[in-house]
Amino acid sequence: MSQLQSKRDFLLLFLKGAGMGAADVVPGVSGGTIAFITGIYARLLNAIKSINLDALTLLKREGLKATWQYIDGTFLVTLFAGLLTSAASLAKLITYLLEHHKLLVWSFFFGLIIASFIYVAKQVKSWDAKTIISCFFGALFAFAVTSLSPAEANPQWWFYFLAGAIAICAMILPGISGSFILLLLGMYGHVLTAVTEKQFSLIALFLVGCVVGLMVFSRFLSWLLSRFEQLTFALLAGFLVGSLNLLWPWKEVLSTYTNSKGIEKPLMQQNIMPTEFALLTGQDPMTLVCISLAVTGLVLILAIEKLTD
Fold this sequence. Notes:
The protein is mainly α. Helices cover 75% and strands 5% of the residues.
């Protein structure tokens, strides 16, 4: 019976990792948000933080088994197996959906982020002046970041490492999308291409950068949560609110750029109402469908929260 329970736990953890991977592929949605709402966020930070010099000393003194338990190795391997499997398998699908059904995708994730904000905000025990200011600052920062224009890089090999180190910091923060950071760096398309075309050397450079960034930033974030838990939760809630700016489905393209493959992409955009979208683009804003998908995303996250309580 315990073995069956263990297998079920492994499967659930793998699926949580898969959810993180799926979220990280989408510019605007953070894998850290999925980790947070599925109840593994603190464990993930602690496991990553435990990969340190003490673990190396333990390996020399007591061997692999003790070290594996110390770093929560089974948890990390199972989670990241789900994350990498999902990210690799969904890269083409997400790219296709964003290209051909953008309104529907952004609407669904808009609902996800609203529900995620509700969940994170509930972690704040008392909304006083300090936590409100922290939340406001987080929202302002996320809004500013998501208002920046994406660049288009022609990267050298080392830039894949740097991009991984920077983007992973956002990937483990609820509300700040690592994929959008890659967009700002001009690396989103290049990384997706490396994954879909199996350019293993570039993928390896990106992953090594992710590992280095993860080791450094997870310690800082863990320190914040241990010293300033309530202010940090309020800040993270603000990140989620601010990121809604990016996920608003209906946008007017103000200017475009041509990427390295000769494809025209939006550069500057502004949020508009569905009626304005219909007039400007001549396209059906699918308002009711979009609202329904947003509600579906909202209900889905709240349901996951109940199941993981």
